[in-house]
Amino acid sequence: MDYPEIGTILERCEFFKGLEKSEIEKIAKLCEVKSFDTGEYVFQQHDFGQHIYIIAEGRIFLERLRDLGERKGKVVIDVLGKGRVMGCWSTLLGESHFLMSSATCEKPTKVVVIKGSDLREMMLSNIDLGFNILERFCFLLRDRIQAAYGALEKI
């Protein structure tokens, strides 16, 4: 996948939609593409998080392990497809943490990967871009929290 193709994926994803073409082109240069097979993890709960992932092709189950004593298992928080974003958001805030969910591929999947700290540096050097990305980040977090609450109700 070349930079123009990555740029098209970024333009259409929920996180970067509406940004200026010149900003998308700069962000595309920070990206790499990775492929995963059915059943493979993009990341696992408790991994140290450093990256943000945009789904270019495929579907991913965003899952959380649960342990309620005798009842153990996985809860699907959300099913994410093309254009959806996931990963370690705290890197955009200059913080690191361990991931609170796992991302498992339902079928062969390609993701665009951005190192969060690199995107943060770009956001700090362009405050308007930084604000636009953090605003989208707030909406994305709202949606994930709603999905997590919905998953909890199924337990």
From TrEMBL:
SMART domains: cNMP (SM00100)
Positions of the Cyclic nucleotide-binding domain: 15-137
Molecular functions per Gene Ontology: voltage-gated potassium channel activity
Cellular component, GO, one term: plasma membrane
Domain of life: Bacteria
Pfam families the record matches: cNMP_binding (PF00027)
An example Gene Ontology biological process: regulation of membrane potential
Name of the protein this chain belongs to: Cyclic nucleotide-binding domain-containing protein, DUF4388
Source organism of this protein record: Desulfonema magnum
